[in-house]
Amino acid sequence: MKIGIVGCAGRMGQMLVREVLKTDGAELAGGTEPEGSPAIGRDLGALVGAEDAGVTVSADPKALFQAADAVIDFTRPEPTMRHAELAAEAGTALIIGTTGLSAEQEAEIGRLGEKTPIVLAPNMSVGVNLLFALTRKVAATLGIDYDIEIVEMHHRHKVDAPSGTALGLGRAAAAGRGVALDEAAVWAREGHTGPRQAGDIGFATLRGGDVVGDHTVVFAADGERVELTHKASDRTVFAKGAVRAALWCDGRAPGKYSMFDVLGLAVD
Ligand SMILES: NC(=O)C1=CN([C@@H]2O[C@H](COP(=O)(O)OP(=O)(O)OC[C@H]3O[C@@H](n4cnc5c(N)ncnc54)[C@H](OP(=O)(O)O)[C@@H]3O)[C@@H](O)[C@H]2O)C=CC1
Ligand SMILES: O=C(O)C1=N[C@H](C(=O)O)C[C@H](O)C1
């Protein structure tokens, strides 16, 4: 399967290039970066410190979507939306790891998914997808007496908050309680906030250093506390999940899919 990487010089882009190069059944179709990037014209293998791959970085996503069977996108919301349009036009599968998408943008991706398979997931690691399922189950089991708080920490370069994964954990907790996240979420606290309201789902965001991605869901009651934690120490876990999703799209019917679909995890 020919796989293209948009944003191939980014932190995740480089991991994805390396992962495609070492995956059986996957071939690198090319990569893109924005116009003016110093990476344009460089061999993709050399870009990531590997042997020459025989394909170069371009600023032409349209050509990449025409050449590839699947494209993986870990960039920013605006280019991701353009890439989703190109995927739908070319009938190329698209794997989206970009976070910080608005509800409207996610809905538009759903519409474009009617034309081609699109996998959209805020976290492609197996461990975090299991954590989504566990969070939903624990929230449903423990009930309203257990206050839910979601804490995440990421590296100093991250531009969106809370992380896409923290939002996903919030949605899972809300689903376990049978409520909508928007009605329960407390995104941050400052000043004289008054006491915590029963049913709130609180978020706390930490940024610093080179932290790859830590997430904890706290269920705090009188007399005890349950904590579910995932810590990513290597971005390879996300790249492996994304390449697995791209291969999973081979021959797949159009649709908007999640990593639960790719991993065969059941939602109950
Ligand atoms: N779903 C998951 O499992 C994970 C998701 N993420 C998400 O992935 C996204 C990227 O993260 P990260 O790799 O750390 O960020 P980086 O900033 O390191 O990488 C983003 C890359 O995209 C490039 N880019 C920007 N605009 C375009 C464009 N129009 N065409 C092509 N390339 C473009 C950037 O180029 P330039 O720098 O020149 O602007 C940069 O190289 C974030 O939203 C992050 O939250 C991250 C890890 C895991
Ligand atoms: O920006 C990152 O680095 C990460 N972003 C994703 C998110 O927002 O949840 C996933 C991972 O935690 C790393």
Report on the structure:
By secondary structure, the chain is of the alpha/beta class. Helix content is 37%, strand content 24%. The chain contains 10 helices and 12 strands. The strands form 2 sheets. The protein has a 7-stranded parallel sheet with strand order 3-2-1-4-5-6-12, sandwiched between helices. Helix 1 crosses helix 9 (236-248), helix 3 (61-67) packs across helix 4 (77-90) and helix 6 (126-142) runs parallel beside helix 7 (164-177). The relative contact order is 0.16. The model has no long low-confidence stretch (mean pLDDT 98). The ligand O=C(O)C1=N[C@H](C(=O)O)C[C@H](O)C1 is lined by residues 99, 122-123, 154, 158, 163-165, 213.
* Total count of helical runs of at least 4 residues: 10
Task: Tell me the β content.
Answer: 15-25%
Q: What structural category arises from helix and sheet content?
A: alpha/beta
Shape: elongated
Task: Output the strand order for the largest sheet.
Answer: 3-2-1-4-5-6-12
What is the top-level CATH class of the largest domain?
Alpha Beta
Kindly, what is the distance between the CA atoms of the first and last residues, rounded to a whole number of angstroms? 33 Å
Number of DSSP strand runs = 12
Name the average pLDDT: 98
